[in-house]
Amino acid sequence: MVSQNYFFKVKTPREVQNILKNTAEPLESESLELSEKLLGRTLYDDLVSPVDLPGFDRAIMDGFAVQARDTFGASPSAPAYLQVAGEVKMGEKASVQVIPGQAVKVSTGSMMPEGANAVVMVEYTDYLDDKTIEVTRPAAPLDYIVGKTDDMEKGELVLEKGHTLRAQDIGALAGLGITSLSVTRKPRVTIISSGDEVVSPEKEIKYGQIRDINSYSLSSLAKQAGAVSVRMGIVPDDFNSLKERMAEGLEKSDIALVSGGSSVGTRDVTLDVIKSFEDAEILVHGISIRPGKPTIIARIGSKYLFGLPGNPVSVMITFDMFVGYLIALLSGRKETAWKLQSVKAQVNKNVASAPGREDYIGVKIIKTKDSIMAEPLLGKSALISTMVKANGLIRIPLESEGIEQGSEVDVFVF
Amino acid sequence: MVSQNYFFKVKTPREVQNILKNTAEPLESESLELSEKLLGRTLYDDLVSPVDLPGFDRAIMDGFAVQARDTFGASPSAPAYLQVAGEVKMGEKASVQVIPGQAVKVSTGSMMPEGANAVVMVEYTDYLDDKTIEVTRPAAPLDYIVGKTDDMEKGELVLEKGHTLRAQDIGALAGLGITSLSVTRKPRVTIISSGDEVVSPEKEIKYGQIRDINSYSLSSLAKQAGAVSVRMGIVPDDFNSLKERMAEGLEKSDIALVSGGSSVGTRDVTLDVIKSFEDAEILVHGISIRPGKPTIIARIGSKYLFGLPGNPVSVMITFDMFVGYLIALLSGRKETAWKLQSVKAQVNKNVASAPGREDYIGVKIIKTKDSIMAEPLLGKSALISTMVKANGLIRIPLESEGIEQGSEVDVFVF
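Predict the joint structure of the above. Result:
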């Protein structure tokens, strides 16, 4: 006898991501001060340069600012002779002008004096007396100069809305004098473990009980994905307890996750609780993915609730594929692609799959001198050790019947 | 005339990394509580499983625990008939035993009763009356069971010392009941910007001055690399100011970074200050890398001091290659490889280089339907915009004269 709830309409992973994309709106902004805390945050607005950078022509070598034509043809045997009209000190406005036949001493980073259009490197000059240098190599116009708008120009679009800030971007903000910035608020994720057999890690366990793995792997994944994660503990598998804790989770967060036991009875309770919220809309109930098929996704107002399977491996895969994707959408991130970074490797075992289902399999990447191999770790999805031993994941596409030993695959690196 | 300081003995990037490897010792440990804060931290000791996981045989399907041989040959037309001797509730010890001809009801995750060696899925059973089921498909021994040590075995090495903790590892710790863990202390990195032309980002600037980019990109890079970063502001280019701030930086941290102007004079001051510390040992002075050649690395007691070039691009490259590498060593990380993750791409322009120097060039990765192209961003290393536009880096090896358009390269993704 198959329970009625087996007959939900299963969606493909792509369909599920599209549903999330079509329903999720980026969260509101918050203003942060310039600091390394901006790392990984998402730009709320386009960033337009408020100034020219560097804002004045700069020498980028130690030497002499000259008019290039004064040095044309110069060589060690026929040097050009120039009068030294002065020096530009670091951090000061250039006050001397360079007129034909003259040179002004400059350092790397100092302002170019007016009239000059090139820098001769100090290595190709020599003082004849206090006021005169000889130049033994010609300079071309613009040699060793950065122009006033060469780095950035006032009004230029520097970074687009939705960009995830990196170290260089934070450096650029400093360079432009931008000391506070609007970024999208971090999504809050609450995490509930359900199951009569689940106990907290610090407790002694009895036969039949297991410690709560999922709260900890999920809160770590949520943090890594750029959310604020709040663990809300363990709830027994009854309607009232679950409803109370889920209501609290929804109130405190943008996304509430419930990782339930995987038994039919437990799944039914989770579904009943979700349905009991007044404005609940069940978006997804079942996904053609392994592991992770019985995943439920609902929207309650502007908030999302996930009923995740109870197995530790299923939980991680479904998080990466759907919760992480939703966090990226709520964060307003332009790049929502799942695991951009992958390496090519050869699978060293046959792996079977069934068409109509996307399979995710943990692999151990083995680098040798000549090749990169991926060893599929074929464990049951109840085993966290499969993921602990893995340092990557491979995907077997929906339509495929498996991967043959020796074929090349993309490995998504943890 | 070439200044005397140009004649330092330049080392290859590989030599520099080896020097760091041979001198750096992992820092001491600290104990952290089980939580998502362990993410990215390094294991100080080997992690050996204190218990068996799950610790008892578990059913991983809803159904009936049976003796497999009782079901051999069962089919819809010739079902096997079994007496239901009881049920194992979730989270409870199995108290009934399965003897030949009997079955015990189990749920996904419940404890297996003694005597049984397989689970028949509920889908292939049907109740004939309260106490009798028919089984319409044979079960093989061990079907749908996870053994008591299948996930982890007491005494098993789960993770090696030096491993960087990921979400699944933190989940596994919870599963094993490990609620506090020794990890290597995070290295502290102090960051000083030097230069008479450098001003703090919140200040108005005058001609000849530029805002402090490097403090912010460096502190972000240090944070990203797993260190605690402390910005110590801007110091003018004179011996006493620099010495005072560097002494303070060394006192407060494991690694002090000074990003100086790139002029010869500035570099000389930095070098003089480093030499003036009583037990300073200059490990590196000049690296065959572009950008970043004038990098200085010294060891003062157990602490490290870096004199980094002043250009924003040079600073980032030398950080990644050497400071990030040192942070990994001090953190005790097993994996110190620079940027494990790369993608293959075709360079869409010729890029020249000089043999005897390793070149790093920012690229923009352009993904089309059929290919991944890398567009080299050939800018001066004084321009932070080069790095802002880039989403990856390519390396031209020491012995190469450049890369031809169309050749395949590894792009290290930011």
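Confidence is low (pLDDT under 50) at residues 1-7 of chain B.
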